Amino acid sequence: MNRFTILVSFLLLNVAGIISIHIKGLWGLWRRKIFLVAALYFIIAIGLCISSTRPWNELSIDSAAIEAKTLFRDVGGFEKVRTEAIAMFNRFGPGKVGFEPGEMQDFSTIVSLGQVDCIVPESSDFPAYIKVRVRNHVNGYTIMLSNPNSSKKPEKSPYLIEISDAVYIIK
């Protein structure tokens, strides 16, 4: 039995209980208490609905790092990606938002990692980096390929892990 079936059964039983109390004539005496209990059940039911739509297999930052290392190994290694990242920074510079379909043909290794969104310019918190999204916003993560020629490092965060020199995972 899945969670949705259990939730619907729970709600139907509570509605049936409220109706039976109403039929017995106790509605006038217990109206305020029944309303509060019904409101409480309704709030619990909404919470269960919201929590049941969240994925059970949501990636942690550690499992994302392990998956990313495997992904880098499959595309040719960190050094190959680092070489292409330097070439991208040299060609486009920092701050390139969006890429035309033909612009990425010379960077097949980086494209095979995931969806290349943009080159984010340097800020006070981060160096300039190539933003690569892997999977979606719920079960995915972002690979941050910072410029290997830059000496700036991102600030430490529980949502950021360095998996290689100038390569970070953001969850």
Strand order of the largest sheet: 1-2-3-5-4
Total domain count: 2
Percent of residues in beta strands?
15-25%
Spatial separation of the terminal alpha carbons = 32 Å
Largest sheet: 5 strands, antiparallel
Structural class: alpha+beta
Order of helices and strands: HHHHHEEEEE
What do you see in this structure?
α1 (3-23) runs antiparallel to α2 (27-53). The chain folds into two domains: 3-53; 61-170, no CATH class. With 171 residues, the chain is of the alpha+beta class. The chain contains five helices and five strands, in the order αααααβββββ. It has a five-stranded antiparallel beta sheet.
Give a quick set of tags describing it:
171 residues, alpha+beta, 2 domains, 5-stranded antiparallel beta sheet, 5 helices
Quick description:
By secondary structure, the chain is an alpha+beta fold.
Topology:
Blueprint: H1 3-23, H2 27-53, H3 61-75, H4 78-92, H5 108-111, E1 115-120, E2 129-134, E3 141-146, E4 160-164, E5 167-170
Helix pairs in contact: 1-2
